[in-house]
Design a protein that fits this description.
heterodimer; A: 122 residues; mainly alpha; 4 helices; elongated; B: 283 residues; two-stranded antiparallel ribbon; Probable membrane transporter protein (chain B); membrane (chain B); transport (chain B); transmembrane (chain B); TM_pro_TauE-like (chain B)
Amino acid sequence: MAERKKEMNEVERLIGQILRIGVIVSAIVIVIGLAALFIEGGSGYPGDTVPLGFRAMFAGVMQFKPFAIIMLGLFLLILTPVLRVVVSIYAFAVERDTLYVAITTIVLIILVIAMVIGYAGK
Amino acid sequence: MVVQQVIELAAVGLLAGIFGAILGIGGGMIITPVLTIMMGIDIKYAIGASIIAVIATSSGATIAYIKDDLLNLRVAMFLEIATTIGAITGALLTGVIPHALLYVFFGLLLIYSSTNMIRKLRGTADERYQPVQPDKWSERLNLNGSYRDIIEHKNVDYEVKNVPGGFAMMYGAGVASGLLGIGSGAFKVIAMDTIMKMPLKPSSATSNLMMGVTAAASATVYFFNGSIQPQIAAPLAIGILVGATIGTRIMQHLRPRVIRMIFIPILIYMGLQMALKGFGVTI
């Protein structure tokens, strides 16, 4: 029981670190984008246009366009919960907890299916 | 670019983050009307911003709650199967079931849950954790947990029961978020606290952890269909990340009673808001 608890804390610590890194990186990118928006006084795009899709987003980031940088930061933020699920699978595997490796893998698969259905529906 | 709007959004985010982290809710149902009615932002962008808000609250709060050993990772993982399958069901059911009917149903469910919470509030003066008999699912899935109660200066070991009931409620929460685009943190707290008899604080913390995953699927859709306006979502997200961090500090020092007292009016408000929406009335 005590053994189990200790293992669990290790798993949680790892997940906490991954999440912290993900959140801090995305927050920094968003703040840089906001600062650029103020300094340049424009979004880098005409009117209300927002860069959609990876190609437009990364092309915009390369040219240091404020909206593209913010979108990248928001995208990284969206990825943090997904990343957490992936890391959890690894962490449970390290602890040899096969039941929860299976459960977490199922969650990840369903999550990916949900994202695909979402794309198809739009 | 209006500087004033950025500051206002960051302030809204700060408050939403504090309450969201304390109560285990994403606050989409509260942020959306604030953005549309008070700030005059288009509903499409308000929904896009609120889904980002749910994820920001979840990730911001989870960082602290993992460090403080307040959330139950196994409960979260197991129940996420139900919420994600529910989200898919909801997405597939779009157009099959009238939204109005769903809004009324989920709205009434929230109001009913608030009466349960009120009963709990009035029930016992002794708010210490009352041990429950775990069911066979809880034992098989190893769902028992323990958390550090800062107010009582001790570790509280707890068990959970009614796992199938909690699982079913989580499935419903997933359907609601898939169909209606809400984070449904309130339903998650109810599933754990009211149905599975988990203590309120770990319920809230675990709900915070889970709602990020539920929201991530729909967030990618909004991200690529142009619902997210950077100048709206960005200041909101930054405000929330800061607010959620503050909220996690406050929550630990609040008595479960106090958390319930904040939660109940919000449940009633959300329930009324949803039920009335079903009848075509917006508040």
